[in-house]
Amino acid sequence: MKSLFFDEIVSCSICPRLREYTKNKEKPLRYKDWEYWNKPVPGIGDENAKILIVGLAPAFNGGNRTGRVFTGDESGKWVIKGLHTLDLSNKEEGVSRDDGLEIKEVYLTNAVKCVPPENKPTKEEINNCSSFLKMEIKSLKKVKVIVALGKIAFDSVLSIYGIKAKFNHGAIVNLPDNRVLIGSYHPSAQNTKTGRLKWESWIKILKLALDLAS
Question: Which residues constitute the domain of residue 201?
Fold first, then answer.
């Protein structure tokens, strides 16, 4: 799998609050022997992807630990298992950067590349990172569908296109470049364990994206 703009993203230090947070936050005991990535986390996937999935940001003990988006946390379990269900991934779960995970027809990234305290990036931090998301969207020339997980990701994509729309689960927005934006609740533990996002509803979103991209 390929990571677009790897060097540019990993070397970014424009948001001091986010960089300091990863350095100073204490690791849980279950990961005490794990060498955390603690840097901006680039996206991964198929450079000829038809579908782009945009999340909020890496989780502290997820992508910030492993160095790969949607790896090692509850959100990642749902995303990768969902792709595997549709034969878009060779594994049901991603656990580390060297686990042999392969994704086809899909590219995964986040609106914000560093883990924010309490999963709440500031508007300035979101804006700072939007240049990377814009570069990814522009570079992925075969993408036909963008799936935005949560309102921040949804609004970040809309901002890049200079348009506005209301976020809700299942929202569909036709973008100026003939791509389609789909809104989805983020498959975070906060949403999945409370039943706000059910597995059937999540798979329905992914199937819709695949149908529209085909």
Answer: 6-213
